Amino acid sequence: xxxxxxxxxxNTKRMLVDIESTDRLTSDSIDKFSRKPALLKxxxxxxxxxxxxxxxxxxxxxxxxxxKASNLWHKIVKHRKNLKKKLNRDMGMLVSALDxxxxxxxxxxxPKIMGDLRIEAAAAMATRDALTGLYLHGVLDxxxxxxxxxxxxxxxxxxxxxxxxxxFKQVNDAYGHQFGDEILQKLGRIIKKTxxxxxxxxxxxxxxFVIVFPDTAIDSAAEMAERLRMEVNRYFxxxxxxxxxxxxxxSIRDPDVITASELIRQADDVMYKVKGSGKNSVGKMLGxxx
Length: 290
Hints:
Elements: H1 10-21, H2 27-35, H3 37-46, H4 52-60, H5 66-87, H6 92-103, H7 116-127, H8 137-153, E1 158-165, H9 168-175, H10 177-194, E2 200-205, E3 208-214, H11 218-238, E4 245-251, H12 260-276, E5 282-284
Helix pairs in contact: 1-3, 2-3, 4-5, 4-7, 5-6, 9-10, 10-11
């Protein structure tokens, strides 16, 4: 059996940790992925946010669907090998990608060659909320339809929570908007610290947040939501003022929830019922269970 297709060896794991610890993905590290399938698999499996679409964006600053990005990636790897044979030197993934996309497939008419730092900055601006570091609403719109379709196709559970900070307007009125922004920043950090690597956290808008839980039944998602609620209570009881959150949880395993928009609407409805019955609590769709 080819060792590249087996579980990552210790050296591969160290390379992956090194890449992830810098919190930056560069054309150099993408080259490493293209040469070592085990490393690429480790990266793609590490988080739902680690996708071929992201790899292609950071190479070319062009946006592709995940299916097309995956197909292009494998064609570019093959093209890179052909270039190496023809030119007797390795041109690297960035040059190979731009050559393939502009001169062979025709996907790019005006290649955008950007330095790694500029690509990283552009990618962050395109996908992350500057205040909280969580994904933007638009990224959720793009990802959730695909996630719902995939989980439905394979009969897997997919759950989602909608979270809203209780009485946030009163906090802003009492302490000012700058203080309110600090609360949002702290909540973003709490969310990232509390959830799993595979979960998908989003700043939905204002003081509302969404977290998507892949391969997770609603009861398990509700337990994680309760853990998050308690962590918010604990943190702000020690670092005032008192801040609480109301959370609604939904799941596509319910027969009435088959689209991304319905998954969000159900969680939103439950969240507002929680707010109407006293706030600072977690609710889930009626009739839903593991």
